[in-house]
Amino acid sequence: MTIKLTEDTIFRNLNFTQEWIELGIVNVNIFSKIKEEYLKGEYPRAEHYRWWAFTDFIQKNKTISNSTFYKIYNLSKKDTDYAMGRAMRFDLIQHLNCPQEVIEIAIKDEDKALSRKASKIKEARINFGIRS
User: Which residue ranges make up each domain of the chain?
Assistant: First the structure.
C-alpha cells in the first residue's frame, strides 16, 4: 500500500503542502531523497528541505510558465519561515525567464530590499532590451 505524500508525517513535519506537489516542486522521487536526508538527522530545520526542493526545481526547469512563476511567488509569501520565503522570492526574480509581471509584483513588495532588487532587474532588462 502506498501512502500519499500529503499523508506522510515527515512531509507534513517539513511544512510541505499540496501546493508544492501541484506546482511540480515536490514529487515522489524528490521527496524520497529529501526524506532519506531528513532521516539521517543532520539538518533538523524544515526550511532546509523546502529550500533544497525549490532550488532543485529552479535549476532543473529552465522554462517555467508565467503562471507557475506567479504561483511560486505566492507560495513563497506563505512559507512558514520568513527568511526561506524571502530567499525564494529573490531567486525567482533573478531567474532569466521570470516574467515582468512577477518582477512588477516584487517591486511593490513591502520588503524594501526585494523591491530595490526587482527595480534593478527591471532597469537592467530595459537597458539590455530583454523582454519576458
Answer: 7-128
